Every structure is written in structure tokens, then in C-alpha cells.
Prior knowledge:
It is built from 13 helices and nine strands. The chain is α+β, with helices and mostly antiparallel strands and 443 residues long. The protein has a five-stranded antiparallel β-sheet, with no helix packed on it. A hairpin with a 4-residue loop joins strand 2 and strand 3 (357-366). Helix 1 (6-40) packs antiparallel against helix 12 (286-313) and helix 8 (191-203) packs antiparallel against helix 9. The longest helix has 39 residues, at 51-89. The protein starts with 5 loop residues before the first helix and ends with a strand.
Amino acid sequence: MALGDPLAYVRALHFAATILAAGAVIFATLVAAPAFAAAATGTPERAPVDGDGVIAHLRRCWAWLICASLAVAVLSGAIWLILLAAGIYDAPVAEVLRNGGLWTVAGETRFGQVLLGRLAAAVLLTVSVAALMRSGGRGLLGALAVVLAIAVLIAPAWTGHAGATPGAAGQFPLAADALHLAAAGVWLGGLPPLAMLLAAAWRQKESRWDVNIATAVHRFSVLGMISVGTLLASGFVNSWYEVGTLNNLFSTTYGQLVLVKIGLFAAMIALASVNHFYLTPRLASADAVHRLYRNSLTETALGFAAVFVVGFLGAMAPSSHTHQHPVYAAVPEGAAFVHIHSVAGMADVTIMPGHVGTARATIRLWTEEDDPLIVQNLTFTLTPPDAASKPVVRTATQVQSGLWQVDGIELAQPGNWTAAVNAELNAGHRLALQAPIVIEPEQ
Length: 443
């Protein structure tokens, strides 16, 4: 994965925006709402006249933060889908948009289906934010917003490295990945709205505005401790699954990036410990409030630096997978061959002989764990380079698990043909893969 690869940056931006939006919703609902309710029931002597105005202003700021983050998440998610489709088809973005390949990836791959579901949930969450803030983040509307936020936050686990593992073996790392995302959203995503609350409390110190800061900080601290424990446990599982060995941690680029992420996480824990054990008990002091505010901003910066690293990790093959994948079987002399890789499955397409004439196509479908991909039926399409010529569309015959053949294909012209695999998986899901394959002139 090169530093110039735009997909890594788009992934990082998407995850950062999603974490920020979901974390702000959870903070406003589970942390701030009870604190504001406690302040509203306080004695008149402790609540200044402008208290309600400050609370309303904070809620407006959080609503803006959530909506802006969701807008960035939707836009970056759409760009991610376009770039992924271009990679699957090995074609320029304009061509993928023009030939309808984008809609195939969106509708017939797990990544596309999950992403479309997340974008729909993000739109529903955006619509509910205004009403949520007016209601104070409490009641059924608050609960619905939290559910939508968590759904948007953890769904990428089903499209990542853990989600690509088939069968029961993939459920444990999948659950760990989902918990990891949820914990990151609660802790890291809650830090910016916490900093905004602390800043408001600091600015209002002369008028003695009281929103029960101690209640808010304590509730967030409890959520933070739970999140840290969850991040540690799930991070260990993810690292074991994706890095594999201690040697891989130091000797591979993937492992070294994991070490950078661990270092940033350790720095966040150190700051969080100072906040929890030293500053939180001293919140009666305005200086402690200000220091807690600055530490929250520093934690936020460290956390989103870790998200930047995650953007690259997700676009790379894990160290453990790199060593597990076998070298492809030797391509027969004179054959045309292409390997097509996607998040939902992979295909090796071999056409023998690979020149004009009558040929046989062999399609091997498999997972990242080198297990055969279970397919109900498979349609193989070869589109000639001449746009005026009709594509060859054939139903493949299964030879053995994961291996399919099509005999008697007439290759009428040389050039860059397009090989397309459309496979029906279990539970009505489909796998659509497409890539160019070179057919030589008749020999």
C-alpha cells in the first residue's frame, strides 16, 4: 500500500467522520442529557439566568457537529465505493461509472450492500438529530438515535478482514472487530463534545453556570473505562488474528503500523489516567476544568492519528494472511490468466489456450483463507474488445468445490477481453467480479 493511494486516505476520513458522528450522538444522549437534567433540578441559587441558553447553544453545536460528520461520512463512503469498483474492474473511474460497474459492486457485493445500508442509516440519523436535540436526547428518540449511531459505527466489521472469514471461524474475530469499532466510537467520538462542554463551563465560570460538570465527566469516565477495556481485549484478538506472530509485528509493514497504533493508544491511556485519577476529583477548581479541556483535545488528536493509521491497515493484506496465501498454481503455457480480488471473494480465471479459437475456461473461486467459496451456480461472461461484437455468456459446470469450467468458448478476435464472473452464494447473496484478460492472435 503506497502512501499515495487515495483509498487509504478516504478510508481514514470515512472512519473518522463516522466515529465523530456516532460518538457525539452517544455523548449527547447518555452523558450530557442526564447531566443537563440534573442541572435543571438544581436550586435557583446555583443555576444562573443564562444556563438554559448555554445548554441550547451546546445542543445546537453538537447537532451541527453530528450532521457535518454524517455528511462527510456519506460523501467519503460514496467515494470509497467508486474507488473500490474501479479497483475491482481494473478500469478508470469514468469507465466504471459509464458502464454500470459501480451499481454491480454496490448491489451484488457484501461491501456494497453493507455500505448502502449504513448510508441509509446515516440519512435517518441525520433527520432525527434536530428532533433529538430539541427533546434533550432522552426517551425513545434518544434510544433510536443511539441504535442508528451504533449500526453506522460497527457495520464495517462485516466488510473488513474479519468479516471475510467464512463459517464459524470468522464469528469470533468479527465480534471483536465490531466491539472494537463501538468502543472507539464511544471513547474517541465522545471526546470532542466533552471538550465543547468543558469549554462552555470554563467560559461561564464567572457567572457560576452549573450543568453538573462532575456528573457529565464521571459518566463519560465510566464509559471511557469500559471502552478502554473493550479496546484492549478486542485489539488483542484483532492483532492475534491479523498479525499472526510476534515476528510479523516487527518485520512486516502491516505489523509496524499496528505498533504505531498501539503507541498512540498507549499515549491516550496515559492522558485518560491523568484525567480520571487526578483532574476529575478536582473539578471544583476552574484550573482543573481548563486542564481537562486541553487534555481532551490532545486525546482527540492522538485518537484520530490512530484512525489515520487504521485507514492504511484496512487497505492492506494482514501479515497473517500474507503468509497463509499459497503461490498461485503455475499457469499452463499458452493460457490466458487473471486473478480477481474483492472483499467478498476471489477468482482465478484461466482460459486455455489463450489465443483465438476454441477454448476452455476454468474458474476457481476461493476466500482469503484459501478455502473454496461455496457457490450455487455461476455465469461466466467474456466480452470481446470490439464493442459491436456480442459477449459470450455461458453457465459454468462445477467440477469440484470451488472449481468451475466452461467448454467450447469461441474466441473470435485477439485483444483485451473482459472476463466477468457472476456467482450465486448462499442466502441469496451474489458475487460479481470482472477484470480484463488478454487473448492472443491465432497461432
